[in-house]
Amino acid sequence: MDSSMKYHLFASSYGKGVRQTFLSHLCRQLNQNGITMFIDQDMEIGEPIIPYLIERIRESRISIVVLSKKYASSKWCLDELVEILKCKGEMRQIVMPIFYGVDPSDVRKQIGDFGKFFEKTCAGITKEESQRWSQALTDVGSLAGEDSRNWDNESKMIEKIVRDVSNILNATIWKKSRYSTGISFLIAINLLLEITSAVADQLSSTRKPYFARISLVISVLSLILSILDFIYKVRAHKARFRCKWPMPWFYYPSRGYNRIFGSSADAILFFCVVGQLGVSTVNFSFIDRGRDGPIKVSVWPLVFAVGMVVSKFMEKPTISKES
């Protein structure tokens, strides 16, 4: 998620009943997965209501619209919906409708009990504004979303929603992360350091011991850069360390921390950096004792370069789950 975004989700809903049951349970499940959600009751005292809500909607990556039977009885909610769909069109924000005890076709066509509440809300307002709300309801009713009537167990539906949200955020996080713009630069820097270290190793000898020192220092620097890069990605993905089978390691928050963190490119990078550090350490230890190092040609830079190319071909394309 972009660092300018304070929340992962914005929730638009109407009625204390919905908030105290469905939304509260959903919010708890999302928090357990490291996902933050803004709802109206999160507003700070003294903030202007409409501008504040518009700001919160625009700061969120995903908007969840809980469409209950009385949703259209609130002008506030309808204005939120218009802004949410505006962000979907202009900012490619993802919109996830939840049809909570209401038929999607009733929302889309503004009929049934849902339509009756909408008619009452439109009484006394301009035709232009009622048409704007009507179009927003038609649009959101046409989007794919969960229908609570299809679920016997609401907790199972909530688990499904949390999984979907987690997968969307994991699939799009690098598109909105500043890291994505610097990853190629970091790889290039590490490759240059690997090559420089290998060349220094080749030039090192008992007559030129300083090359061995240069090689070792560069290898250590490359390792430090790799560790800093890894720490940044762990924090960006909100991954957490778990002592679990088959390997104690960092895991993504989605799917209950069952998806292991990292990629083939990360593994290749770290493996090559450690390998070159090993070569530099061996050569330095020999030259420091007055003997030429046993390793004159290091293949780690070549392995690094080939590995990066192979990992790119093996990498699955990122799928944006925009509705």
TrEMBL record:
Keywords, A to Z, come to: Membrane, NAD, Transmembrane, Transmembrane helix
**InterPro entries assigned to the protein according to its UniProt record, in alphabetical order:** TIR_dom, Toll_tir_struct_dom_sf
Keyword Transport annotated: no
The segment(s) forming the TIR domain are 5-169
Instruction: Check the record and name the SUPFAM superfamilies matching this protein.
Output: Toll/Interleukin receptor TIR domain
Q: Which domain of life is it from?
A: Eukaryota
Extract the PROSITE patterns matched here. TIR
Residue spans crossing the bilayer: 179-198, 210-232, 267-287, 293-314
A Pfam family cross-referenced in the UniProt record is TIR
Q: Which region is the signal sequence?
A: none
* SMART domains, per the entry: TIR
Query: PANTHER family, alphabetically?
Result: TIR DOMAIN-CONTAINING PROTEIN
Quote the protein name from its UniProt record.
TIR domain-containing protein
Which organism does this sequence originate in? Answer: Eruca vesicaria subsp. sativa
